[in-house]
UniProtKB/TrEMBL annotation:
The chain crosses the membrane at residues 6-24, 36-53, 65-83, 114-132. It is a multi-pass membrane protein. It is found in: Cell membrane. Belongs to the MgtC/SapB family. The keyword Transmembrane helix applies. Gene3D superfamilies: 3.30.70.260. Residues 154-228 form the MgtC-like C-terminal domain. It comes from Streptomyces noursei. This is Magnesium transporter MgtC. Keywords: Cell membrane, Membrane, Transmembrane, Transmembrane helix. Residues 13-133 form the MgtC/SapB/SrpB/YhiD N-terminal domain.
Length: 243
């Protein structure tokens, strides 16, 4: 029977955490709810549970523990799935956490090369299939061009001390939603607050793209006010007359 040495333990744990962190980097860059630390911790937890069962010397225990890890991640994933109107958000995040746990289990079992290949497969799904999914998801509305770009403005009022952080976070959220910033202005509204205004170009689903940005920034405790609107030139004349 193979005895788990300290070196084996550290190598497998390090591989599991590294694979989870690599998956989390992409999620963090996209400004998703579960980012670098969450995915790394999920992978680390899955790795440690399976390593424990290996360390105690029960040959059948690792398989049973792995099945319990899958069930436990199901509860964790359910916490990031949110209802948004008629649809739901967070399904991709929950599935990614599940995959992070899977690569952790592979690393703990000693299949380090399989854990790395699994990590690359998860990253490929996010990086390659994401644009493909957007292409398939574009359904032209009657009388409208889904690829027509419109201009919108995002307004943020935040604590003055957090201006640099919020500005960087705003740019990151815009980039993660594939929005093209045209300009970014910061103005000191009062002694304690700063107003930040970002003008962006949006193609496709305007509300969905900007609501992702709003949802990300709304989690920040230093943000006092947050909203977006279409630029005046993008509003139809009859709508301006009714305003």
């Amino acid at each position: 029977m193979h005895t788990l040495t300290i070196v084996d333990f550290l190598v497998r744990l390090a591989t599991g955490v590294a694979c989870g962190a690599l998956i989390g980097v992409e999620r963090q860059w996209r400004a998703r709810m579960a980012g670098l630390r969450t995915n790394a911790l999920v992978a680390a937890g899955a790795t440690l549970f399976v390593l424990y069962s290996t360390a105690v010397g029960d040959s059948g225990s690792p398989t049973r523990v792995a099945s319990y890890v899958v069930s436990g991640i199901g509860f964790l994933g359910g916490g990031v799935i949110l209802r948004d109107g008629a649809g739901v958000r967070g399904l991709n995040t929950a599935a990614t956490l599940w995959c992070s746990a899977a690569v952790g289990v592979l690393a703990a079992s000693g299949r380090l090369e399989f854990a790395v290949l699994g990590t690359l497969a998860v990253l490929a799904v996010h990086l390659v299939l994401r644009p493909a999914g957007r292409l398939l998801d574009r359904a032209p509305a009657s009388g409208s061009d889904p690829d027509a770009a419109v201009h919108a403005t995002v307004h943020v009022v935040c604590e003055r001390r957090a201006e640099t952080h919020i500005r960087a976070l705003l740019l990151q959220a815009l980039t993660a939603s594939d929005l093209t910033p045209l300009s970014l202005r910061a103005r000191r509204d009062t002694e304690d607050t700063t107003g930040i205004r970002a003008s962006v170009t949006v193609s496709g689903d305007l509300a969905q793209a900007l609501e992702q940005v709003i949802a990300r920034l709304s989690l920040e405790p230093d943000v006092r006010d947050l909203h977006w609107h279409l630029d005046e030139s993008e509003v139809a004349p009859e709508q301006r007359a009714l305003a």
